Amino acid sequence: MLRLIQDQPISSVWPAAFQEFVLKREAIHMSLLVLQAYLRLLHFHLYLVRGDFSALYERVRKSEVNKVAPIPDRVERICAAVDMACIWYWKEVLCLQRSAATACLLKRYGIAAQMVIGAQQMPFQSPRLGRSRRPRGQR
What we know:
By secondary structure, the chain is an all-alpha fold.
């Protein structure tokens, strides 16, 4: 590397080497994000297996937002890492599990995220009762 630098002008060597370094660094950072997301999915899976939804919610709610310097595309990178971790997860990832992992990762990297759980109550309707049925004895 030193000989290459001595033989060629610095302007022609450094930009390519620097770009390669930056690309490798970004790939390593993304791999670490995917690993962190995978471990969070595993962690919240344990809460769901036990049926301990309140503890899961408290864990997400009590995780603190770290004070980290802002990076413009941090949210997109974290969401992409969670998507990749969901692809490689050993079973289907549930919505609550994915949301909890994403919220905690966002908080870890300085983004004030909040997980909101909502439910819609719908009146129960059996599929059989919903159809028009003929009274007995008539054809």
